[in-house]
Specification:
Number of strands of chain A: 5
Largest sheet of chain A: 3 strands, antiparallel
Number of helices of chain A: 6
Largest interface: A-B, 77 and 77 residues
Order of helices and strands of chain A: HEEHHEHHEEH
Oligomer: homodimer
Strand content of chain A: 5-15%
Helix content of chain A: 40-55%
Radius of gyration of chain A: 19 Å
Structural class of chain A: mainly alpha
CATH superfamily of one domain in chain A: Winged helix-like DNA-binding domain superfamily/Winged helix DNA-binding domain
DNA sequence: TGTTTACTTGCATTCATACGCAAAGACTAG
DNA sequence: CTAGTCTTTGCGTATGAATGCAAGTAAACA
């Protein structure tokens, strides 16, 4: 019995195949090389890296703020109501993943989103989640200060 | 100095405000109530919950597989090349977050994505990431199997 | 040069999560 | 009821990540 193959996932494999460079991994059973579960490994890796960064309240807020404005660390810290040092750490990770770009202006550093794909990804994500929230009234409430 | 307000983020606040029910939190400084950094709290909470789930290689692969087919646990386990028990655990979390729905068929359980918003979110995400990968050839390689 | 402002980095603590393994449920078939 | 799948759940462990605090760097200014 076997149900993987490319029976499902559309061109997820193809698209990345066009992209060029990728890591090599011998497929254990079947499917295209560099592919597991019908999804290209590199796409999964990159997607996970980006999603992981967005999957944090503070970073998500920062990202959304940066969608429309170029802001400094202290401005962001003030906006999301977190200590500056912490925000800086988050920004460092976002920078490592190339989600944001920086520009120095005197002693302050202004952050922005320079990648259009990232911008669209965030816009679409928030949009879908808003619809999701609209369709389903609160499911999982239950206190838990955090 | 203050740079937050709604100077940036578009209707992220409005949209959810229409949605109705949400948690209550007194804004520390300013901005709409139930809002931090110009982004609605509930939208952030839900988004983070969903993103967290997608931000795992196995779960992302499973999700993509379920985009186009209704599969059983063992089929999924085989496809993503992971032990059945582990896949079941992942599916449990996805179920808790209402990302997937199940249907029993004898001894087997078939999983599927029943929410159209989730489907679109995943499709858009993978699409954007593919473009991302296409534009930028590998940035962060560096030895280290797995 | 010394000081102030703005940001970054290092470190320790704490909490969350993924993984593997083993046991328990659920359902079909004899 | 017993045997055999398929799936779920519990548990211990190891790894990863967020947070707070303190020290370090960078640029403007007196």
């Amino acid at each position: 019995m076997n149900a993987s193959k490319q029976s499902g996932a559309p061109r997820l494999t193809r698209a990345a195949t066009v992209g060029g460079a990728r890591s090599e991994q011998p497929a254990a059973s079947l499917g295209a090389p560099g592919t597991v579960g019908g999804v290209d490994d590199d796409v999964v890796t990159l997607a996970v890296e980006v999603l992981r960064i967005l999957a944090d309240p503070t970073r998500l807020r920062i990202t959304v703020l940066l969608l429309t404005a170029e802001l400094s660390v202290s401005e962001l810290a003030d906006a999301v109501q977190r200590p500056v040092a912490g925000v800086s750490q988050h920004l460092a990770k976002m920078r490592l993943a190339h989600l944001v770009a920086t520009r120095r202006e005197g002693t302050t550093v202004r952050y922005r989103i320079d990648d259009e794909h990232i911008r669209q990804l965030v816009l679409d994500t928030t949009r879908h989640v808003e619809h999701l929230l609209f369709d389903r009234p609160a499911h999982h409430e239950m206190g838990g200060p955090r």
